[in-house]
Amino acid sequence: MIAHLPALQVIIPLVSAPLCALLPAGRAVWLAAMTASWLAFLIAVLLLDRVLAHGPISYLMGGWPVPWGIEYRVDALNAFVLLIVAAIGAVVITFGREIVERRIRLPESKQSWFYTAYMLCLTGLLGITITGDAFNVFVFLEISSLSSYVLISIGRDRRALTAAYQYLIMGTIGATFILIGIGLLYVMTGTLNMGDLAARIPAVADTRTIHAAFAFLTVGVCLKLALFPLHLWLPNAYAYAPSVVTAFLAATATKVAIYVLLRFFFTIFGATFSFETMELDRVLLPLALVGIFSASVVAIFQDNVKRMLAYSSVAQIGYMILGISLVSVTGLTASISHLFNHALMKGALFMALGCVSFRVGAAKLERMAGVGRTMPWTMGAFVIGGLSLIGVPLTAGFVSKWYLVVGALEKGWWPVAVLVLITSLLAVIYVWRVVEVAYFKPAPAGQVVREAPLALLIPTWALALANLYFGLDTSLNVGVARRAAEMLLGVGP
User: Fold this and answer.
1) Among residues 75, 8, 15, which one has the least CA distance to residue 48?
2) Which candidate, 385, 390, 399, places its Cα nearest to that of 463?
């Protein structure tokens, strides 16, 4: 069974999806989805442990050798991303039962379909991460995208339908660009296996077809990861989706897209071709810097807290792209560790907002007046997530921002380091707006708000405490990230 862990990583959530559709709505279908999610998390832990102990794992589907068959290949980078996706998937589905029962626009008899779509989305994200076949990246991307459109559209606010449609259009354009890029690579190399592509591309790297493939993949992946200015689908999608969906997608989907960018431009094309021949950093660096600053400023003026955090996510994506643009071990370590840290902080923040919405009916700033006193545990988790988002020492968010600043200074780019510090101060402003309203403004007359149920608080606090733990013990988030960075740049042992 241990030998088949890479296949089981995808098969278990995939098989659970139709099972959820067949089960009646209620506790049974939630238990089925939660069991599959936690099994996926356990498999991700075992895979990461085996990769760290014994090196990369190659799993040939059906025993067909490369490049004829499909290979699942697990190394330090995607084992780390598998852990992130599976962990968030398990925690969020544990959190989600009461939210699904009360806060989605589906009749009770149809709620099983929510869990089906959720498991399909999880399957797609895990599949993108584990596959060693470029075309299968597209296949799993479509599985995750189509299910995420459904998940977003079932928010109680009817604007969720418009947000899902906008995401569908932008996501389809991005996926089409990715498919065209993969097709052009296949035309020039005759293979779709990532390792085989990496070996064959240097012989044809000077052709216009490869350059066009590189351009299509760059635009398509940047659309999927919501890099400024290709981020316009993201704020509405996060703001109007159900809280459980927002927490899941915010903590996983864009992280997987960042992984795809790393895999294509460091493993398949190679760092030399991507950043010296094609000079990708000259495109990514200014977009990342503008995105960090502009999205942070826009976040300050939002009255919908979910929308505020959505713009914050655009800024955080900019931090990750900035680290990649440094093209150094320290910069990549910052980016990869921030994948992990940002998943923890945004998961905790959006789940805390889910608790608030569960009690007050909305995540708008004016509706949160006084909830710091009536919902102390919920807002305590929000404050911890906010401190990590700002990058306060002893939180996970501080660790990756520290490495980002160090990476910029190693390059001699002190203005970039200063911008990172300034935008962290902007995060103080929009986090403080929520804290001020929640703790220092009186609750509306006659409003009685109780603390969120334990079923919501326990998963929320699990992620909140993880922000503190991984701010103190960095052996996982930084240790594995550095190993992955050295592998991508070819400087590891």
Assistant:
1) 75
2) 385
Question: Which residues are 60's β-sheet partners?
Answer: 71
pLDDT in tens, 203-253: 888 899 999 999 999 999 999 888 888 888 888 888 888 888 999 998 898
Cβ-proximal residues to 475 (8 Å cutoff; 6+ apart), any chain:
none
Query: What does DSSP assign to residue 444?
Result: P
* Helix H or strand E segment including 368: none
Written as six digits, the tokens of 358 are 């569960």
Cα dihedral 217, 220, 222, 224 sign = negative
- The reported pTM is 0.91
Return the domain boundaries, the chain. 313-488
Cβ-in-10-Å burial (0-12, 13-18, 19+) of 440 comes to exposed
CB 103 within 8 Å of CB 112: no
Segment 181-198, tens digit of pLDDT:
999 999 988 888 888 888
What is the spatial distance between Cα 376 and Cα 356, in angstroms, rounded to a whole number? Answer: 11
Here the tokens at position 237 are 């999608």
Q: Which amino acid is at 437?
A: V
Pick the closest to residue 228 from 171, 174, 283, 288 (CA basis).
288
- Which residue carries 């306060």 as its tokens? 392
18, 112, 292, 447 from 23: Cα distances, Å: 9, 7, 44, 38
**Cα–Cα distance list, 255 to 31, 182, 261, 324, 451 (Å):** 26, 20, 10, 13, 31
**Cβ atoms of residues 106 and 153 within 8 Å:** no
CA distance 475 to 396: 12
Q: What is the CA radius of gyration of the chain?
A: 21
